[in-house]
Design a protein that fits this description.
This protein is an alpha/beta fold. The chain has helices spanning 3-11, 23-31, 50-63, 92-111, 118-132, 170-173, 177-184, 201-214, 252-270, 278-287, 311-324, 342-348, 369-377, 389-403, 413-432; strands spanning 41-45, 68-71, 83-85, 88-89, 137-141, 159-162, 194-196, 218-220, 226-232, 235-240, 243-247, 295-299, 302-305, 330-334, 355-358, 382-385, 406-410. The strands form 3 sheets. Strands 4-3-2-5-1-6-7-8 form an 8-stranded mixed sheet, sandwiched between helices. A 6-stranded mixed sheet has the order 12-13-17-14-15-16.
């Protein structure tokens, strides 16, 4: 089997869609000899900030010498980004071997009437690979929700982390933040520990109730003491525990994510589960990366790529633009999925972008750029529809070169994954001239 054939096998399950429930996942894992039970975890759920918190935690663990597995969702440009060991994608050969050894189980279950979805299989693959590699610890990001997410087939993790909760996936998780919080709290388990980011009072109350009911300690990001915070478009710098931490992830929201990650590390160190020095924390944060999160891809002119796709994410992007690009003329390139809260997201950026180019996203759930343009036109005078994200970027980038304005691409991680390589090549070629 070639690598392309392995990827094709995985994606062949896409047509079955996504269906709530863990019964199928448990059947599949049982057939694979329950690899999930052979590992230790830090389990991370939340609406926004999951990927960044996971990146920070994984980087610190690697710096401390732990063989660290990482599972994230979704990937940006390469499928193997989803399954990493020591912050490096698994090799193509390793993925091929895993698919060769496990896909016959998928086919057997299909013949028996149990249809496994792509997301279920990908989760099983990462459990299988991380167990085979004998990882010391796995940083495990939920895909959607928590209670019924495929990752929630694990036993009690070392620690469960809940990042900032907001409205997203409302058709599945609930129409209010409180309903969504109950789903996210599904990852909290007895005989474990919990950490939470800053939350609204109503959300925090629910998380505290779950922790009390399960009789587990709950640490909060607000308990992490940092000072002398400096922020730029290239990242942030702050003091923690007598050391200076440099973080390449930009934006005020990344400070909150860093405090959440530090709260988890402190809790695990305090309880004797991890042996990590302050220097290793410093080193780990300096090495942490998370593409397409307020990522600076060009400096002259400024090009920012952000995967913000819901009101919470767009609000964080808006604050960063207000902070770093207040006096710039800004061209926004936006593509979104139709099942997202596009109306409220667009309202948030109405005073941020001077003009907007709407583009398609290569995803069956994508909103048409013409419909997205009509929504944007309610708030932004200059809106233009493009048939491809690449063409939109070419036009925007040339305009930015000529008039010293900034280009900001946002609306979907799928769009970010599609356009990121093209942007990097375009900026690189331009800098050579």
């Amino acid at each position: 089997m070639t690598y392309d054939e392995a990827i094709e096998k995985i994606h062949s399950l896409l047509a079955f869609g996504s269906r709530p429930g863990l019964d199928r996942m448990r059947i599949l894992l049982d057939r694979l000899d329950n690899p999930q039970d052979k590992l230790k975890y830090i389990h991370v759920a939340g609406t926004n900030g999951k990927g960044s918190v996971c990146a920070m935690l994984s980087s610190v663990l690697v710096s401390a010498g732990y063989k660290t597995g990482l599972f994230i969702s979704p990937y940006i440009t390469d499928f193997r980004e989803r399954i990493q060991i020591n912050n490096s994608m698994i090799s193509k050969d390793e993925l091929v071997s895993a698919v060769e050894n496990t896909f016959p189980v998928i086919e057997s279950l299909h013949d028996e009437g149990t249809i496994i979805t792509e997301f279920e299989y990908v989760n099983a693959l990462q459990f299988y690979i991380h167990a085979k590699q004998k990882c010391d610890i796995v940083v495990l990001e939920t895909g959607m929700g928590g209670l019924l997410d495929c990752t929630n087939t694990i036993k009690a993790p070392l620690c469960s982390v809940i990042t900032v909760i907001g409205l997203d996936h409302t058709a599945v998780l609930g129409s209010t933040e409180e309903e969504i919080t109950h789903q996210k709290c599904g990852i909290l388990k007895e005989y474990s520990m919990a950490v939470t980011s800053a939350q609204t009072p109503a959300v925090m109350q629910i998380i505290e109730q779950y922790a009390r009911k399960l009789k587990i300690p709950l640490a909060k990001s607000e308990g992490v003491d940092i000072s002398a915070v400096e922020r730029t478009l290239t990242g942030s710098r702050f003091n923690y525990n007598g050391i200076q931490i440099n973080l390449s992830l930009a934006g005020a929201h990344q400070i909150e994510n860093a405090k959440t990650a530090l709260a988890a590390i402190d809790l695990l160190r305090l309880n004797g589960y991890l042996d990590i020095s302050d220097f290793q924390i410093q080193q780990g944060f300096a090495n942490a990366v998370n593409p397409a999160r307020l990522e600076l891809l060009g400096e002259d002119p400024i090009v920012l790529l952000d995967g913000a796709h819901n009101p919470n994410g767009i609000e964080a992007l808006k604050k960063s633009i207000d902070e770093f690009l207040k006096d710039k003329y800004i061209i926004g390139i936006i593509g979104m999925l139709a099942d997202k809260d596009t109306d409220n997201s667009i309202k948030l950026i109405k005073d941020v972008f001077d003009c907007v180019y709407t583009v398609p996203v290569k995803n069956p759930r994508a909103m048409s750029p013409s419909l997205l343009m009509k929504k944007c036109a309610k708030y932004i005078d200059e809106t233009v529809v493009f048939e491809s994200a690449q063409h939109a970027f070419d036009v925007a980038y040339q305009k930015a070169l000529q008039s010293d304005c900034a280009v900001v691409i946002c609306g979907s991680l799928y769009l970010a994954g599609e356009i990121r390589p093209y942007i990097m090549n375009t900026v690189k070629d331009c800098n050579k001239k």
